[in-house]
């Protein structure tokens, strides 16, 4: 049985008949078989056309009847060839449309599978629980930030003492040291004669200053100046 007879007599798998129609894959396979069959038919007709042309040339005017018959057969073959060209164009268009439809069907099917999978995943999700979870995460992040800030801040050990009290105690200690230094200084005896006028007083102040400088050379400059001021006041 030829492919053409098989096609027009409805040849096909019993499974396709049982389902009430062929699947897209089966239909595409049948269309490709038909295209292949028609392409071979084209080759056959083109060969017959060339053969009839050769017969017409051979007889020419010597045997007009045979030459004309050959040309008539050539015309019929050309008409069949033109019809096959149109049929092939229609089948090609139908095959492309079926391929696109099958592709779209597969795409939609896969998208449906994906939608079902997403629905199944979201079945176990509660929006209220998600909000609570995000709130807990935010709170824990705030706690972590506070802990980090507390760890990185400067330690305040010993800052409970009053700085003004400490400064007062320090000044008191310095004053004690100053008084102790004053006790260690030996002043010369007061002369029995009366002191001269103001120039003599200035000389006595200068003498006292030299004595203090000799005995307190290791002390700070600020302490020397304070002692000098006290002695100068006494001398005056």
Structure report:
By secondary structure, the protein is mainly alpha-helical. Among the domains are: 102 residues, ESAT-6-like (Helix Hairpins); 57 residues, no CATH class. The protein has 8 helices and no strands. The protein is rod-shaped, with a radius of gyration of 63 Å. Pfam families: Snf7. It is found in: Cytoplasm, Cytosol; Late endosome membrane. InterPro entries: Snf7_fam (IPR005024). It is a peripheral membrane protein.
SS-derived structural category:
mainly alpha
Order of helices and strands: HHHHHHHH
N- to C-terminal distance: 153 Å
- Percent helix range: over 70%
Can you count the helices? 8
Classified by CATH, the class of one domain is: Mainly Alpha
- From the coordinates shown, what is the CATH architecture of one domain? Orthogonal Bundle
Task: Indicate the mean pLDDT.
Answer: 76
Count the strands? 0
What percentage of the residues does DSSP assign to strands (E)?
A: under 5%
Determine the CATH topology of one domain. Helix Hairpins
Uncertain ranges? 7-17
| Cα-atom radius of gyration | 63 Å
Going by CATH, the homologous superfamily of one domain would be ESAT-6-like
Sheet with most strands = none
Instruction: Specify the overall morphology.
Output: rod-shaped
């Amino acid at each position: 049985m030829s492919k053409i007879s098989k096609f027009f007599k409805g040849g096909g798998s019993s499974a396709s008949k049982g389902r009430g129609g062929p699947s897209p894959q089966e239909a595409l396979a049948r269309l490709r078989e038909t295209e292949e069959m028609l392409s071979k038919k084209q080759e056959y007709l083109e060969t017959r056309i060339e053969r009839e042309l050769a017969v017409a040339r051979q007889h020419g005017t010597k045997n007009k009847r045979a030459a004309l018959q050959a040309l008539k057969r050539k015309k019929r073959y050309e008409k069949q060839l033109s019809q096959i060209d149109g049929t092939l164009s229609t089948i090609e268009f139908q095959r492309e449309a079926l391929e696109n439809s099958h592709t779209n069907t597969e795409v939609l099917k896969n998208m449906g599978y994906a939608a079902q999978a997403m629905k199944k995943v979201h079945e176990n999700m509660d929006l209220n629980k998600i909000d609570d979870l995000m709130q807990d995460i935010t709170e824990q992040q705030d706690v972590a930030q506070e802990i980090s800030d507390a760890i990185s801040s400067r330690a305040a050990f010993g800052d409970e003492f009053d700085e003004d009290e400490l400064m007062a105690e320090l000044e008191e200690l310095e004053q004690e040291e100053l008084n102790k230094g004053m006790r260690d200084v030996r002043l010369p005896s007061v002369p029995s004669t009366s002191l001269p006028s103001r120039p003599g007083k200035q000389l006595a102040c200068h003498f006292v200053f030299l004595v203090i400088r000799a005995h307190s050379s290791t002390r700070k400059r600020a302490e020397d100046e304070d002692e000098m001021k006290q002695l100068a006041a006494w001398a005056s």
